[in-house]
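During the first year of the project, the team set up a workflow for recording each protein of interest as an amino acid sequence followed immediately by a discrete structure-token representation. This format lets reviewers and collaborators read both layers of information side by side without switching files. As required by the reporting guidelines, we include two representative entries from the current panel. The first entry is reproduced here exactly as it appears in our internal archive.
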Amino acid sequence: MWDVRGYRIHSETEQMIITGGSAFNVKAESLRLGNFSEEEVRTLCLENIIENGQIFTAQALNAIWNLTSGQPWLVNALAYETCFKLENGKNRDNPITDTMVEQAKDNLIIRREIHLDQLAINSKKSGYGG
């Protein structure tokens, strides 16, 4: 849930608002997956060769690392956008390039996906657009 308002669900069939219990029944703690190392980012992306036969160029791997610093959501979002949403990425004969990663980054920004503050900061630091 994004905020407490998310706990109120309007039911069309019941013609009423269904609440998820107390507004104070919000999880106070969450587990956080630590950032991936650069090697883990590369390993994760290279798994795409095994799964789909599609490679990431060295420049694409560098771009993903430079844009994300290993932040798990960003790594996965960029890789998913690049491999499964971009037309060039959907074609498994095309290698994933840094240009495609840059386009994926732009798409995430345009859609205002979460964690974009981290992407914007890393994008400016690494010289990848912004």
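The second entry, processed by the same pipeline in the following quarter, appears below.
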Amino acid sequence: MELKGIHHVSAITAKAKDNYHFYTEILGMRLVKKTINQDDPSVYHLFYADEAGNPGTDLTFFEIPNAGTTYQGKGSISGTSLRVPSDSALEFWEKRLSDYNVDHGGITRQGERNVINFRDPEGQRLTLISDETNQGVKGGRVWDHSSVPAEKGIIGLGPAKLTVQDPAPTVKVLTELLTFKQTGSYPSSFKGNEDIIVFETGEGGTGAEVHLEVRNDLPKERPGRGSVHHVAFRVDNEEELAQWRDRLQTARVPNSGLVDRFYFKSLYFREPNGILFELATDGPGFATDEDMNHLGESLALPPLFEHRREEIEANLKPLDI
């Protein structure tokens, strides 16, 4: 039982149509699944990823049309990283983001790596991170029809940044309950703050890291549009996921039990600082109900919702009009 890395990150958008434009046209990611929030089928759940929606490349968004402003703070997933192949790719992105008037901080250093911190139109905190020196989990493959050249494009998710006030209980969950190891640190961008701690699991590298930031100067985050709902970690298969459920129960950690998300099986729980973690299986994947060449082109509904297709489609606004 060893977690393989980041599986996906799920965030919140108030404007699905604008979100679709930004992540496909400007960032060049592929919409691999256009489906519904299974807890609220009146709104979209959108999945952007590499060409095949491989585990570790999915950035997903729940549409919440009335979502308010995010008030950033502790007890949060405060940063999502997107991997690009090289340092030279970051130079391409620095110009591209400027050309599209995207708020960004230019190329800077994050430990031993080059990065660009930027925000989407709703304030989502994002980082492009170079895989120039990556020795761990391999990235995905840019879609042939991406608006961005393959050698420059986004190839997966990088480290997830957590911001907490008290690091000890989160560290305990990561290292004693899960399978992360503390492997390093780098200076905070906020003067006087503690170094950000790096944890990794599985093969390690940019696709298998969590970065832990300690902030005593912030209130608890009030999430809204532009915030992250949860981060998911990769589990090999359903049998192993069941073993993780048993491990959580033995440790008396409240959890959701096994949940069938159709494209993968999941398990949810909160660590002591209130951050929602998900464990998710690598399969069966997004080609379960669509041809690989036509992923995301039509509304995909899990079997439990198929009998409501007409009603559900009538409530959803088209993304590309």
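For the second entry, the following points were noted during internal review. The mean pLDDT is 97. The chain has one domain: 6-315. Both points are flagged for discussion at the upcoming steering committee meeting.
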